[in-house]
């Protein structure tokens, strides 16, 4: 079961992907996480990505495609139950590239799910998010607070606010989403592959609807 999980910044892709990992034994492939790891390592992808991510722009397609292709090629044989692409593709160019890899590397995309959510909710979600420095678990100061403020429930690590969660960067990310990523919804709709889940409900209800989409097929 290979899934593309789409949705604007803050829609809950990472939150729901983690639940799918727990329930179905899938592997989450988050391009945002891959870029942040590359930035930490200061490798060639990290140096380029750092510039674009901090201001809220997409990393150019050729670098993104190269990084994701290398990653999939290396790790695909380990994915026994399938994977969730969280944050990829984000442009039509990336979607077309992914289709060519399906043939080359021998896998299918079984589900494309878009988390649908009004933009006014997103700013609140992004500005309240806190992420663990150590294990990457995300919380929300209001909607999903940690038991102890500033401390990760899972590993005890310190919680921080991401650099691209500043007001200016969030504005650019939402604008970039509208211009570059929203067209993908029509792209997958026209291919008859798109399922839509209401992302503007409780985390448990979103997951319930997501499961219904997957189990329906
Ligand atoms: P990335 O890390 O992928 O960021 P994003 O897509 O902007 O998504 P987020 O991680 O911000 O949000 P999410 O949908 O995962 O929401 P979450 O579950 O955390 O990418 C970062 C950057 O990397 C991009 O801007 C770009 O520069 C670059 N990049 C990545 N992929 C790329 C690509 N393919 N091409 C080019 N560049 C790329 O939830 C958000 C908050 O809301 C959390 O606090 C959570 O607790 C809370 N929450 C979640 N669900 C609910 C709910 N149902 N109710 C209430 N609160 C909720």
From TrEMBL:
Any Gene Ontology CC annotation: cytoplasm
Domain Adenylate kinase active site lid stretches: 129-164
Binding-site residues for AMP, renumbered to this chain: 31, 36, 57-59, 87-90, 94, 162, 173
Protein EC: 2.7.4.3
Keyword annotations of the record: ATP-binding, Cytoplasm, Kinase, Metal-binding, Nucleotide biosynthesis, Nucleotide-binding, Transferase, Zinc
PANTHER family linked: NUCLEOTIDE KINASE
Ligand binding (ATP): 10-15, 129, 138-139, 201
The protein's name: Adenylate kinase
NCBIfam families per record: adk, PRK00279.1-2, PRK00279.1-3
Native source species: Intestinibaculum porci
GO molecular function: AMP kinase activity; ATP binding; zinc ion binding
Places the protein is found: Cytoplasm
Reactions catalysed: AMP + ATP = 2 ADP
Gene name per UniProt: adk
Family indicated by similarity: Belongs to the adenylate kinase family.
Domain notes: Consists of three domains, a large central CORE domain and two small peripheral domains, NMPbind and LID, which undergo movements during catalysis. The LID domain closes over the site of phosphoryl transfer upon ATP binding. Assembling and dissambling the active center during each catalytic cycle provides an effective means to prevent ATP hydrolysis. Some bacteria have evolved a zinc-coordinating structure that stabilizes the LID domain.
Protein function: Catalyzes the reversible transfer of the terminal phosphate group between ATP and AMP. Plays an important role in cellular energy homeostasis and in adenine nucleotide metabolism.
Any one Gene Ontology BP term: AMP salvage
InterPro entries: Adenyl_kin_sub, Adenylat/UMP-CMP_kin, Adenylat_kinase_CS, Adenylate_kinase_lid-dom, P-loop_NTPase
